[in-house]
Design brief:
elongated; 7 helices; five-stranded antiparallel beta sheet; Muramoyl-pentapeptide Carboxypeptidase, domain 1; 23% strand
């Protein structure tokens, strides 16, 4: 809705640093923010930077890696200005209560299910994106989480698990009142509610602010008054699946409460959190990948083995568990041209550190062996120069480019217990 581009977003009208027991109208705006997003309990004195408000400010500042002074300064106000998700940030170890009716203190998940459905309950907004593009971005966001926990997400209006729509201002989630949108551009962007054990009667609803200019942005790009739909969909689907906000801004997680830039891929912190929630922790791997003119670089499980500039050709790799796993060993091989190497045992290189006369690595396979191998799955993917990524392959299946027209530039490997 492009007519909102010049509309002022939420602002603290900040003029100067406000100290203890100082009264100022801007303090009340900050108190509203802190209470709304889980940092301040009821019982504070409106307009006054009292002890309770100072404590809430320190908590907010600590979470955002600011100087925890308890003062209301420009830097803190700027953090409160950032566009964000409408769910509170509070975790049980913080306040023990939620200002939005969502409680992540229990284990809220769709554990035991493998196929979940979703539908759209409103018309699509008019703007930069066509309806088919918005459907595609939502589907991509579901698929990204599905790859990590091996769920299938299907659009199905008959009996949907999740209900997605665009709303303005006060609205409902089914038959119950929902969190209001603020009527501004660039502040509260969306909200979504986890399974019923945590999300209550609004569980499974995912709502985007109708007033926001939804669009597509490249990874890592921030453009004022434009919001990347895929990035927000990834975040809100994380809530639908049961994840709270990530407290540490250093992780650059998709599940961070604020929207600072387009984050179109799940970070390691996101993948670890969802696997922990669904009981699918990865076994720790040590991965060495050899790139032309770079030598061996170190990587970990569920992380693409990309060279410094992301464009180096992979010449070989070595895998090994970080700690011994009883009755399980990991073996692997590579394909060059029309020939496969033999499987080698963990701790040995497959391929080499130099280009091969047989050409670059066009495929690879990984398998688990040993008396307990049937208790685990190994999955792996390849990435090519145009950033195309293969589907996950498993348990000895050859992964790569069947036409061998593109060399593999990165691989991703993970080993998980069988569900």
């Amino acid at each position: 809705m492009r007519n909102n581009l010049t509309e002022s977003r939420f602002t603290l009208d900040f003029q100067h640093t406000i100290g203890p027991d100082e009264a100022d109208p801007v303090v009340y705006r900050a108190q509203q923010y802190l209470h709304r997003f889980g940092y301040l309990k009821a019982g504070f004195t409106p307009l006054l930077l009292d002890a309770a408000t100072q404590s809430g400010l320190r908590l907010f500042q600590e979470r955002r890696r600011l100087d925890a002074t308890g003062l209301l300064d420009r830097e803190t106000a700027d953090e409160m200005e950032l566009p964000r998700c409408g769910l509170a940030d509070n975790l049980p170890q913080l306040l023990g209560e939620s200002s939005d009716g969502v409680d992540f203190s229990g284990r809220c998940s769709h554990q035991g299910e493998r196929r979940l459905t979703y539908t759209f309950i409103t018309d699509f907004p008019r703007g930069d994106l066509r309806e088919d593009q918005m459907r595609t971005d939502i589907a991509l966001a579901f698929a990204a989480w599905g790859e990590v926990i091996h769920f299938e997400f299907v659009e199905d209006a008959a009996n949907p698990t999740f209900k997605i729509g665009w709303f303005d201002g006060a609205h409902l989630a089914g038959a119950v009142p929902c969190l209001n949108f603020d009527g501004l551009v660039g502040h509260i962007l969306a909200h979504a509610f986890p399974p019923s054990t945590c999300g209550g009667p609004r569980a499974g609803h995912c709502h985007f602010d109708l007033r926001e200019p939804w669009t597509r942005l490249p990874e890592g790009v921030r453009r004022r008054n434009d919001v990347d739909l895929l990035s927000l969909a990834l975040h809100e689907i994380g809530h639908l699946l049961g994840l709270p906000h990530n407290a540490d801004p250093r992780t650059e997680a998709v599940m961070a409460p604020v929207y600072e830039e387009a984050r179109k891929t799940l970070r390691l912190a996101d993948r670890q959190a969802i696997r922990d929630l669904y009981g699918l922790p990865l076994l720790p791997l040590n991965i060495l990948a050899n790139f032309e003119n770079l030598g061996a670089l170190e990587f970990r499980e569920d992380e693409f083995t990309e060279s410094v500039n992301g464009r180096g050709v992979l010449n070989g790799f070595q895998l090994g568990f970080s700690r011994p796993i009883e009755g399980v060993s990991i073996h692997y091989k590579v394909r060059r041209g029309d020939r496969d190497s033999d499987f080698v045992a963990e701790g040995e290189f497959s391929g080499s550190g130099e280009p091969s006369p047989a050409g670059p690595i066009a495929g690879f396979a990984i398998q688990l062996v040993g008396s307990n191998a049937d208790k685990y799955n190994v999955f792996y993917k390849a990435k090519f120069g145009d950033d195309e990524v293969t589907r996950p392959h498993r348990n000895g299946e050859l992964c790569g480019d069947p036409a061998q027209s593109r060399p593999i530039q990165a691989i991703l490997v993970g080993v998980e217990p069988r569900a």
